[in-house]
Every structure is written in C-alpha cells, then in structure tokens.
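Usage

Read records sequentially. Each one opens with the input sequence:
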Amino acid sequence: MTDQNASRAPKPSRSRKPKAEALAPTARETKQSKKDQVLALLRRDGGATLDEMVTATGWLKHTTRAALTGLRKAGHVIEKGKRGDVTCYSIKAQA
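and closes with the structure output:
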C-alpha cells in the first residue's frame, strides 16, 4: 500500500499579519481613508457621481449616501447637479 498523504503538499504556515505598530509611520500616513477618497472625488472639477464613489470605496449605494449625509452634518456644503442624465455631487465650500 502507498501512503496517500505523502503526495500532498505541506500546509502553509499560518503567520499573523503585522500589527499596526509594526508598520512604518510613512505607510500609515500615506494610506488614504475612504472618507478622504470621497472628499477628493467631490472636490474634483465636475464632482463625482454616486457610482464613481461606490467604485472608489467599495461601499454600497445606501452607505455612500449616508456618508454624504455625514459630511453635510460635519459642515461640508455638498451640491447636487447633473452630468448628462446622472446626478453629480460636489463640494463647493466648507462652513
């Protein structure tokens, strides 16, 4: 009889991910939060559509709309306009 387990590849070790403290400060500083990504999209010329923000963040549409509401409550003035047939959001000023 042959040993069936001998032909299997060894299992990879289960190493843990490095803790946040182990990351270099520059790596943490350069990572942009999803909120910052949305703000950058809204500040562009022409603003951003809901689908553009969903694609950039990976959020669902209702989550993205909730984030826009949170930005409004934080004092950002978000205006709605049209780009063709699609609603476009942009930041014009901050209170």
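Summary fields computed downstream for this record:
- Residues 33-95 form a domain with the Arc Repressor Mutant, subunit A fold (CATH 1.10.10.10).
- Strands lie at 48-49, 76-83, 86-94.
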